[in-house]
Structure formats: C-alpha cells, structure tokens
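fwd from M.: "can u put these together and see what the complex looks like"

so here's what she sent:
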Amino acid sequence: MNTTAIKELLYKMADDLLIIGHRNSEWTGLGPILEEDIAFSSMAQDKIGQSQALFQLLHELGEQEPDTVAFTRNANQFHNAQFVELPNGDYDFSLMRHFLYDVADQLRFEMLANSSYEPLAKVARKIKGELKYHVFHANTWIVKLGSANEESKARMQTALNDAWNYALGLFEEGDFENDLKKEGVFAGEATLKQLWLETITPTLTKATLTIPHENTWEPKLGGRKGIHTEHLEPLVEEMSEVFRVDPSAEW
Amino acid sequence: MIKSLDPRVTREQIEENNLIDPLTPMDNWETYEVFHQKKRGDQHMHVGIVHAPNPEMALLFGKEQYGRRSITANIWVVKTANVFASEYDDADMFETTPEKQYREAGGYKVMEKINKYKKAQKV
C-alpha cells in the first residue's frame, strides 16, 4: 500500500479536524444560550478527539507522537483547508461553516468506512454516531435560521456567500488522488465534492438560501500544501502555548 | 483596552470603561421537559428542562444536556406548556385517611380465613 499517499490523506483530515475543533472551542462560554454553548463545545471536543485518532494512525505509520505533531509544527506545516482557520466571525458564519464542513466530513468518513486501509475504515465506523449528531445539529440550525425572519435569513445568506469559495477549497486535490482511488483507499476529492453538493442543496433549499452562482466559484486552494491565510499562525500559537511551556509534561 | 488572561477577551479590544449593552430577555423561547431512557423497554425518566424555539432544537439540546454522559437509548421532549399538572394547593387530595386502609393490600384481613382453611384441610 502507498504509505505516502495515505499519510497525505490522514494529515489533511486530521489538521482540518484539529483546527476547526480549536476554532469552534473558542465559542465556549460565549455561545448564544447556555444549551447551545454546551452543545457546540461538546462537538468541538469531539472534533479534537477525532483528529487525535487520525494522528494516532499517522504515529503508527512512523510519524511522531500525536501531541508532538499537533502542537510543535509551524503554520506552514499544516495541511488543513484555509476554510477551517478563518476566524469565527459572528455566530451566523460559525454555524454556516459548521454546516458546510460537517456535511463534507460526514460524507468523507462514510466513503472511508469501506476503505481498503482498514485502520481508517475502523475509525470511520467508530465515529459515525458523533458525525450524525453534528450534521443533525447543523441542519436544524441552518433550516431554522434560514427561514426564521428577514434578519436571520439575510445574515445566513451573507454567511453562505462569504464561506462558499473557502468551502470549495476543502476539496483541493492532492498529488496522490489516483493512487488512493486505484488502491481502494479513498474515492477522491472530486467524487466527494459532487456528493457534498447533492447533499447540501436540499437543506439549503429548505432553508430558502441560495448557493452562489457557479460562474462566481473560485475555490480557495493552497491549504493542503501549507499555504495559509494570516489567521492560522496566531491560532497555532495560541493552541500550542501551554504545550510549549513544557513539552515533556505528563497530562 | 481590557487585557485578560483569556486571549479571546483580549482580542475583542474592549475599552476599559465600555458599558455592555443591557441584555434583553428572550421571551420567545419556551422550555421543554426532557425524558431520558437508558435502554429499550425501560421507563423514560424525567431529567430536567431545556430552552428551545421548537421540538427539534429541544431534542438537539436535550441530547447534549442529558444524554452525553450516560448510556442513552432514547430521549423524549415535551413542551412544558403541554404538561397538565395538579396544583400543590390540592396536595391534600393525595392523603389517605386511616378509614380507607381496606383499599391497601395490607388492609385485607384474610390470613384468619386462610389459616382456618388450612386447619380444616389437615383434619
């Protein structure tokens, strides 16, 4: 099996989860209402846990310990899409990102549940329930706010427009697409993107929101290759601050 | 500017003498009663309430509030307004008077008859 290809796949997935998990956790204590604060924080924790499971697989393939990989790299060594590193903005943007990202994430793991790389397939099957709740949460909010009143609808539409090209960047192809497909590890970003569009469209329609016109689509690429916005570096610094005080500490 | 140990607060660049807008109450979110079932077939037990604008969101919140730390098979949410309850002022209607002990299982005086019957059988 092509280990380099698998590592590339694992890195981008793990980094997406770690970074969005950290971003979403920034809402802890600041959420719109207590119940939602708890739900959103709990899902952020799930994401970090899921990233840890993938870093563990990387470790088994010869990479360093999960904590070392997560907390000692520089921003340009991260493979997450730029979408997940963007600041939280208001709750409308955070919810829209949660929706667009989590649907893609759930579909990706569904595809991987039958992967020929068994350790990853096992993780995919294990976290299925968590992802189901995350998407249920996202769908419920999007539909509710998209159709609640004029202000909420306008804000969700603006959030969708702002998020869109970054969301398309989630499907940036890597150098090993064909190897992964050939070996039955992963069916590829193009397939995932198609599936994603088919899945989000009915929900957005139900929410009376409109996907930006196709001739305006310009996916924000580069994240997978370590090219990031100015927002990632401060995030990484803040996220790893405590770890770096004493990397050998036992937790 | 407020400098806090919480970097999220510092990032907001809040003026020292900034007055936070007074909060307006959210009078449009109702409460839902949450019932939790440990495993199929068990009774649903009342565990608490959540605030939510509709049943779907009550379910969303109920799951995280009451279902995430223990084994859960199922959750019910019921709008608090839909619960028809007795008045505490009427609590005296639950009191049992001594004269009604015949309605309790322990009130039946049958042992005497049973013993009499057993005795008769032995003869």
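replying to her w this: The longest helix of chain A spans residues 34-60.
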